[in-house]
Design goal:
This is Putative Se/S carrier protein-like domain-containing protein. The chain is of the alpha+beta class and 93 residues long. The chain contains 2 helices and 5 strands, in the order E-H-E-E-H-E-E.
Length: 93
């Protein structure tokens, strides 16, 4: 069994909270989670979302002024998670 999901990281908790709020209001399946250890050993909040919605979600973030630091693709396998960076996406308003 394996499946994929994407994780967006943020420079601030404010942007993570806005990410969740705005996207849920628009009907997207997103949830906040701790930043995966493979990404950073420091504390932080990340947003999980379906990878097939990445372009739409990043466009909404840009329109709403939500600054996304980076986007990663996580492949969950039976016992291990594989993580790859999808985008180095610094958005500036």
């Amino acid at each position: 069994m394996k499946y994929f999901y994407c994780v967006a990281t943020f420079h601030s908790t404010y942007h993570a909270l806005q990410f969740e709020k705005v996207l849920k209001e628009r009907g997207y399946e997103v949830k906040l989670m701790p930043v995966p250890r493979q990404v950073s050993s420091s504390c932080g909040t990340a947003g999980e979302f379906p990878c097939d919605k990445k372009e739409e979600i990043l466009k909404i973030c840009e329109e709403e002024g939500i600054i996304v630091d980076q986007v990663y693709k996580v492949e969950k396998k039976e016992k291990n998670n594989w993580l790859s960076k999808l985008v180095n996406f610094n958005m500036k308003i």
